[in-house]
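Quick one: structure for this chain?
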Amino acid sequence: MIDVGGVVGEWVGVRVLVVGGSGFLGREVCRRGVDAGLSVVGTFHSGEIVLPGVAARRLDVTDRAAVRALVAEVRPDAVVATPYRYDDWAVTADGAAHVAVAAAEVGARLVHVSSDALHAGRPTPYADDDPPTPVHAYGAAKAAAETAVRAIDPGAALVRTSLILGEGSKQIQLCRDALAGRAALFSDEFRCPVDVTDLADAVLELAASSYAGLLNVAGPDAVSRADLGLLVAEQFGLDAAGLKTTTGAATGLSRPLDVRLDCSRAAGLLRTRLRGVRELLAR
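Got it. Here's what it folds into:
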């Protein structure tokens, strides 16, 4: 049995509901939870969950009554909320509120996964408690989700994270596409990538804790998307000469560029070690 952050081992047999369990992070939370001896129920909407030991349930988070009914039936000890859809306010914002209400009704511990996308971008790193400054619709939806969760359940943990890497990561595929000339990476867009397994372990560790409020949980290395492409090229032995890059200014897109998260609080609080991207992608 693995020891997720040195904490979940004490939680063997308890029930965790992972809302959004068919997503990239949600699936890993399900898998790591099962490995840690937890009883895991994962929800899906369009993509099924096929993982040993995970009880899969279909759920539309925009249906408040359905969310309340499922949570009341499962009666989890903890709920990990990861649902989002980039261009859908009802899923990202309203769905988060529905999950928070349902979790509170059964007295479940709630860990809500948020994003660095709710920041506008600036040269200095963002602290855990910095207020949202969204510049696009997705960031505004994530900010609204946080507001709802904090109002409904002040004891919930809210995890702000960054680009998620790992096998099957969309971020890695985007880099490979840029290396093949099929996409372009921004040289002036900085993030703090995190490994999906590290993030899943951190989320489960928080679910087993009493931490309340906002927490930045990401890797310690801030890199541009273009530099991330170069690291991917090095790891997979790809030719970096074909890497296609651009800048935010050149595209005219309204999106946050320099968003670095100060994760010193998480580093001091969590037993889970959050590895940097250079360590993750070292050959």
